[in-house]
Amino acid sequence: MKKEKCKKKQSKMIIEPDGNLAMNLVRVTEAAAISAARFMGTGDKEGGDGAAVDAMRKFLKTVDMRGVVVIGEGEKDEAPMLFNGESVGTGHGAEIDIAVDPVEGTNLLAQGRPNSIAVIGAAERGSMWNPGNSFYMNKLVVERKARHVIDIRLSPEENLKRIAEALNRPISDLTVFVLQKDRHKELVNSIRKVGARITMHTDGDVMGALMAAIPGTGVDVLMGIGGTPEGVIAACAVKALNGGMQGMRTPLLKEEINQLKIDKIDLNEVLTLDTLVNSDNAFFAATGITEGSFLEGVRFDNDGGVTTHSVVIRSKTGSMRYIKGIHQLEKSILV
Questions:
Q1: pLDDT digits (tens), the chain, 335 positions
Q2: Rounded to the nearest 10 degrees, how much is the dihedral formed by the CA atoms of 182, 187, 193, 199?
Q3: What is the DSSP secondary structure assignment for residue 18, as one 8-state letter?
Q4: Is the dihedral of CA 328, 332, 334, 335 positive or negative?
């Protein structure tokens, strides 16, 4: 009887993340974006990233949660702040896995190019996949209507045919987001061969995944190899949008290949959306830093204020909110 009572007490203490967390997360990305935006076009990508990390970490301290960074800036010895395993939050509230990229597209920010964003993902404790020694993965992302037809083990041509049929559109109307990398020469040729359109980007496949999962953004599919940690962050957004996503580890670095062999990792394993984020209560927030086709960049106004443009999504409710923030910095704790 005592054991049963104890179990009941423990179950009552479990706190689920709620809508308040979603709004707090977007305030975290706003803080990071505002701090990073000062470095737009300066050529200083480390300075911009460092400013965003500092702001994000400062504001995370104020959020009521018991958070642990699963995807951060690196291991503790390599990243003094927002490292993998770092505890964040006030220590009160729900237990949360956190994935962050204070500046997705540090080169974009440093060079003053479009689509640099500050992003954060969150889900219930223990639900986020840990990439371990895997640094790169092949990714395939689509919107809800095509989520059941994709299979990353098939050719790009076959997947595009399936996606076009699911969306009831000709392949020639599909637009595929691809990172402009040498490793994607064959992928680009395959997409062109089947007749789909391509939008090439030097960086930023979290943004690409987000756009592919939201109907009407001008991007229908994301294909290609990008960072594995970014894949987990993207999965939070795709999960929240009820989209479709699959991945496969695709090691590119010699040390990565050797370590995955030592770890006896099956490179043929398909990483499903539920593998990457095994929770139905996932959150995602992003704020534009530089101007983009999806999110506006940070704008410094004549009266000393700052305007931000963000999106915040929650899977449990299916809600997606676009937020235009107008901040008076002398009254704000964002910076």
A1: 545 544 444 444 557 776 689 899 999 999 999 999 999 999 999 999 999 999 999 999 999 999 999 999 876 556 668 889 999 999 999 999 999 999 999 999 999 999 999 999 999 999 999 999 999 999 999 999 999 999 999 999 999 999 999 999 999 999 999 999 999 999 999 999 999 999 999 999 999 999 999 999 999 999 999 999 999 999 999 999 999 999 999 999 999 999 999 999 999 999 999 999 999 999 999 999 999 989 999 999 887 789 999 999 998 888 899 999 998 876 554 54
A2: -80
A3: -
A4: positive
At 142, list the tokens. 């689509």
Among 111, 108, 141, smallest CA distance to 233 is for: 141
d(CA 325, CA 287): 10
- DSSP-based three-state secondary structure for 263: coil
- b/e sequence 188-203, b meaning 16+ C-beta within 10 Å: bebbeebebebbebeb
Number of Cβ atoms within 10 Å of the Cβ of 327: 20
* Predicted TM-score of the model (pTM): 0.90
Alpha carbons 190 and 185: distance in angstroms, whole number: 9
Between CA 245 and CA 93 the distance in angstroms is: 30
